[in-house]
C-alpha cells in the first residue's frame, strides 16, 4: 500500500496554533494527533548560555520518509518537520490493552540563526526521552488540554490542547477518552436555575514526590547481592464506572508497606516488590 500523510492546522485566537497530524496507509488512518507544542532549548554562544523558546509553527509538515504506521512489527512513528532542519517525533508501542508514546524525539539545527542567534555551533542535535508517560487504553483518544511539560535530555517540550490516538480502528478520533492527570481538576457546572448549581466530584489530589526506599535481595550465604535505593511512582489507567470513562491516576509506592523478595544468579537478578495486596512489581537485571 502507498503510505500517505495529511497535515492541517487551525488557529485559536490568543493561543498557540494547534496542528493536526494524520498518518495514513492507503485509505486507513493509523495515527492522528491534534496538538500545540513549544520547546525550550538551551545553547551556547561564544561568551554565554542562552535559552531559545520555539513553537511548532503552522508551516510544520510530516516527514514522509520517517513517519510510518508500523507494519511488519516495527514501531509506529509520527514525525513533523519545520524550519531548516528541526523536527518533532513520537514513536508508539502497544500491548493488548494500552498504547503509549515509547520515545519523544526533538531535533534542532543550531545553524538556524533566526532561532539560535550567535550560537557557537552549527550542529544538528537530536535528543530523545523514553520516559514520557503519555498512554491510553486501546481504541480510546488520549486527551490532555492542560499544558504538560516533558524533559528531553536537558531540553523541554510542552504540549497543550492535545488529543491523539495511535493504532486507530477507524479514520476519526475515538469519542471514548483517556484523560491525563492535569485535566482532572475540580470544576463547577453552570447553574441550571437561579438558585442551584451542580458540582463535579473533585479529582484525587496528586500524591507528590514518592518516598525513597531501600530494598535488598540476599543470596544463600545471607549476603546482599542486590541493593536498590529508589522512589517509585506509577501512572495507572483504569475504567471508572462512576465517570463512565477511562481515567489515569498517579500512585506512589510506600516503602514502609512494601516487602522485597528476589534471587541472584551468576549473570542475572530479580527483585519483586509487593505493597500489601494492591501492587506487585517485578524487576529483572542482567549483566551484559
UniProtKB/TrEMBL annotation:
Gene3D superfamilies: 2.40.160.110. One of its GO terms (cellular component) is lysosomal membrane. Residues 1-18 form the signal peptide. Pfam families: Lamp2-like_luminal (PF01299). Residues 185-209 are annotated as: Disordered. The keyword Protein biosynthesis does not apply. It is found in: Cell projection, Dendrite; Cell projection, Growth cone membrane; Cytoplasmic vesicle, Secretory vesicle, Synaptic vesicle membrane; Early endosome membrane. Residues 20-164, 210-287 form the Lysosome-associated membrane glycoprotein 2-like luminal domain. Keywords: Cell membrane, Cell projection, Cytoplasmic vesicle, Disulfide bond, Endosome, Glycoprotein, Lysosome, Membrane, Signal, Synapse, Transmembrane, Transmembrane helix. The keyword Transmembrane helix applies. Disulfide bonds join 30-69, 144-180. It is a single-pass type I membrane protein. One of its GO terms (biological process) is establishment of protein localization to organelle. Residues 187-202 have a biased composition (Low complexity). Belongs to the LAMP family. Plays a role in short-term synaptic plasticity in a subset of GABAergic neurons in the brain. This is Lysosome-associated membrane glycoprotein 5. It comes from Larimichthys crocea.
